[in-house]
Amino acid sequence: MSRYLEKDFLCSYDLSIGFFNNIGVKVKDVQPLRKVFILKTEEGDKILKKVDYDQNKINFIEKSLKYINKTYPNTMRLNKFSNEENYIKWKDEFYIVMDKITGIEASCTNPIDLEICAKSIAKLHKASKGLKNSLEKENSMVIMGEDLVKSYSEAREDLLEIKKFVCSYKYKNEFDSLFIENVDRYVKEIEECERLLSKSNYNNMKDDEDILALCHNDLAHHNFLIENGEVNIIDFDYSSINLRCVDLSDLILKWIKNSAFDIDKAKFIIDSYDEVNPIRKDELELIKILLAFPRDIYSIIRVYYHKEKSWEYESYLNKFKVKLENDIYRKSFLKEYNEKI
């Protein structure tokens, strides 16, 4: 399924002679790779990527990484085009080019990869301290992460609204039935997250410059490339400035959800991060709230009913079933969290 979607996306690229003349790079060959193209050039291999955001987000990413690279160089970097911009707008689409970073994707099952990737994120966050103030002094756009109070409230309201619609369906398919069977439980879980959030130190933490960082927000294993023990972090499409523990919770979730929510693995990630960038007690408490939010379940429900992806029905259904099965382990994990972390 994903290969067909990637192929469709790659077909939307404009690889005309006019396009390549505009980017100012002498291209000898072009090779597809997932949703990007590798450009073989006289200056080495480069990555051509079409993005679904505008120049404001591109400039935010470029300036944020430039700030971070002063003390932590292991990230992707945007190239300048012939127009001296870090993007090109071609036929109302935005494209960026980066030097190709060599390396092997990190493995979620390899404890060495786990440790060095957690430490690399700690270094990234540490290097981004003061970024918000720096961007504001330059009068540059600052993209802040989502407010948890608002996003949890919106998620709860969204589930209740979807429930109204689905209950009105004369015919309900299996996905609808599974949704109706489980939705009340997940609404209650979100309400509990809202309650815990209101009792936490979250409102004070949001304005604390010491724990604000550039958050990657998509810390899946394939966004870490490892070569000779060095980790490079790529794909900052979803990046924003937010509490660093929000990013750390994303790393934990993405690396433990397919291993039965292994509490020891989560602790190992936190301990590895803490060696480089010490974590506060209120951050650990917020991480538990973040992991208590039924993110994977809400995500598949939202994507299905709001038609955010071009997947086949069977793909939606299978993903929903798998997520419901895995969620049993998440609940056990949350019970162990206070004891072991």
UniProtKB/TrEMBL annotation:
Keyword Zinc: no
Keyword terms of this UniProt record: Capsid protein, Virion
Cellular-component GO terms for this entry: endospore-forming forespore
Signal peptide: none
InterPro entries in the record: CotS-like (IPR047175), Kinase-like_dom_sf (IPR011009), Spore_coat_CotS (IPR014255)
Pfam families: Choline_kinase
SUPFAM superfamilies cross-referenced by the UniProt entry: Protein kinase-like (PK-like) (SSF56112)
NCBIfam families the UniProt entry points to: spore_CotS (TIGR02906)
Protein name: Spore coat protein I
Native organism: Clostridium thermobutyricum DSM 4928
